[in-house]
Write a structure and sequence with these properties.
By secondary structure, this protein is mainly alpha-helical. The protein has two domains: 2-74, no CATH class; 94-313, MetI-like (MetI-like fold). Helix content is 79%, strand content 0%. The chain has helices at 2-28, 34-39, 45-54, 61-74, 87-122, 127-141, 144-158, 174-208, 211-218, 223-260, 266-276, 279-307, 309-313. The chain is globular, with a radius of gyration of 24 Å.
Length: 315
């Protein structure tokens, strides 16, 4: 058990190291001079060279890489080329917003997928099961930003129940915070919930054919209680894999959804940095998102060991 955890931890650290090299190399080979972009085309050569020296852009690339990695480890992410403001406070502030959005979206996805997928499996040979499968397939085809626009059109513009955009910190006004969180979280969660429901249905259908579940039903349990008591844990093993992938997809999807609902998260910060060609901000935010995806995969591996005892004892 301990050896498996240490092995996965070593893989995580190696993946983070390789990812940092790839992200830094990609930013380094982009054409153009960040100092020239920051100062404008009319800046003098002396001013450009001075700015390059201030930000360490005149040093060798290996030195720049090591300094950047040291800053990541110490949460000293440097300063923006454009605003000269410290990047770490901006990233931490925006990351809290994105975590709220992604977390709420994942809750919506699970609440939609588990009942919908389980019911679709239990009624797979009935018209209701066919209808549920068709609804989930339709949800897979709808992108998150389009779902967001439709939700705004119905619940914000048409009915006026919820605000169409904006963000209020939860400590400032909890009620307004929740009302502004509902639509963006639903646009993320409903789409990902439809995808996840397909996998839940397949996993539950496979479990329903197992001998132990037929034995439980032969003892008098109805299909639903038998599935809850004896089947869901076994069905959860393949679903956890997809759940981890879906969480990573939510992080990426939040970039677009934040723009649709004017939410000041990491996605908005990243798109603003791209528009301003603020490469150091892009580099830091991209690395943070990559690290989040790798950590999610690491946690999924640990969840395998927690859910399935056979993995803890197998050689």
């Amino acid at each position: 058990m301990l050896l498996r955890v240490l092995t996965r931890l070593a893989v995580l650290l190696a993946s983070l190291a390789v990812s940092s090299l790839v992200v830094f190399a990609f930013m380094a080979v982009l054409p153009g001079d960040p100092a020239r972009v920051a100062l404008g085309v009319n800046a003098s050569e002396a001013a450009v060279q001075q700015l390059r020296s201030d930000f360490g852009l005149d040093r060798p690339l290996p030195t720049q890489y090591l300094e950047w990695v040291r800053g990541l480890l110490t949460l000293d992410l440097g300063e923006s080329y454009i605003s000269r403001a410290a990047i770490a406070p901006q990233v931490l502030d925006r990351a809290q917003v994105t975590l709220w959005l992604v977390g709420a979206g994942m809750v919506v996805a699970v609440l939609v997928a588990v009942p919908l997928g389980s019911l679709a499996a239990l009624t797979s040979r009935s018209p209701l099961g066919v209808l549920l499968s068709a609804v989930s397939q339709l949800g897979v085809a709808v992108p998150a930003f389009l779902a967001g626009i439709l939700l705004v059109a119905v619940f914000a513009v048409g009915l006026g129940w919820l605000p169409a955009s904006g963000w209020t910190p939860p400590a400032q006004d909890p009620g307004r915070f929740l009302s502004q969180l509902v639509l963006p979280a639903s646009s993320l969660g409903l789409v990902q919930g439809a995808v996840l429901a397909r996998y839940v249905r397949s996993a539950v259908l496979e479990v329903l054919g197992e001998d132990y579940l037929r034995t439980a039903r032969a003892k008098g349990l109805r299909p639903g209680p038998a599935l809850v008591r004896h089947g869901l844990r076994n069905a959860a093993v393949p679903v956890v894999t997809v759940l981890g992938l879906q969480l990573a997809t939510l992080l990426v999807g939040a970039v677009v959804v934040e723009r649709v609902f004017v939410v000041p998260g990491l996605g908005s910060l990243l798109l603003d940095a791209v528009a301003n060609r603020d490469l150091v901000v892009i580099q830091d935010v991209v690395m943070l998102l990559v690290a989040a995806v790798l950590v999610i995969n690491f946690v999924v591996d640990l969840l395998y060991l927690a859910i399935d005892p056979r993995l803890r004892t197998a050689r």
